[in-house]
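User: Can you predict the 3D structure for this chain?
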Amino acid sequence: EQDWLKTNLAKFSRMLQGQKDLVTVGHLILSELAPVVGAQQAEFYVLNVSGESPRLRLFASYASGGQNTHGKEVHLGEGLVGQCAVDKRKVLLTNVPSSAFRVASGLSESTAMDVLVLPIVFEGQLRGVLELASLERFNPVHEAFLDQLTESIGIVINTIEANTRTEDLLKQSQSLAEELGSRQEELQQTNEELQDKARLLAH
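Assistant: Here is the predicted structure, written as structure tokens:
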């Protein structure tokens, strides 16, 4: 079990190394993670703090609402995903009522047995939420793996967001430098005009 845990954590660490886009990260994680832990549905939310109130935005999904639902937002405290974000604690639902969570394929529809909602935290700060539904029970090894994996995902989200902020600041400083350059040219031109006028006056 320890070998399985270490091997899979190393595999995901390699896979996430150097990633620069949160949507790509979300798709990579879910498509690789679902088969590993036996999940049939999954969703990946990232905390968005740019607006008036922080919200969780759906960045990637696996066999759930489809790609047209990407970008949907969940308020903190709203539903299990929002509550998990507020408490920063894992939520495990077992023996889910038959009508609550449906896992659909092209041919059939079945009831999820377990639903697991995990907070993604970096240095005590919430970064996102991972939700998984399975037709079977999540075993303790899968849960231990997911607990450790969400820590790695927190680091990745933090790194990507920090890099994005740095790039934005760099672009801002470049446009400011260009603006200053053109202002300097204008000043030089005005200066030359003033010198011409001064010569004319002296004449």
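The chain has four helices and eight strands. Strands lie at 41-48, 55-62, 73-75, 91-94, 102-104, 109-111, 114-122, 125-134.
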